[in-house]
Design goal:
By secondary structure, this protein is of the alpha+beta class. About 35% of the residues lie in helices and about 25% in strands. It has one domain. The longest helix has 18 residues.
């Protein structure tokens, strides 16, 4: 995966992760000094229009591989 450091610039520090709103995808980054989050429109992520589209695709692949290996 790409180095996620450059994604942190546009995030907000949060106390606790929340479920995404309808049509949105949350990215939560857990680092040494807390949790940082950013929400993006899922359709923009899927269509490649977001700067986070590559990360979204890579994370989807990771989740798919976990499901395949766990029988889910």
């Amino acid at each position: 995966m790409e180095n996620g450091q450059h994604f942190l610039i546009k995030t907000n520090k949060i106390e606790e992760p929340e479920l995404p709103k309808s049509g949105m995808t949350n990215f939560n980054f857990l680092i040494g000094n807390g949790i940082y989050s950013i929400a993006k429109n899922t359709s923009e992520l899927e269509s490649g229009k977001s700067k986070l589209s590559n990360l979204f695709a890579e994370l989807n692949e990771v989740i798919t591989q976990i499901r395949l290996k766990s029988g889910g």
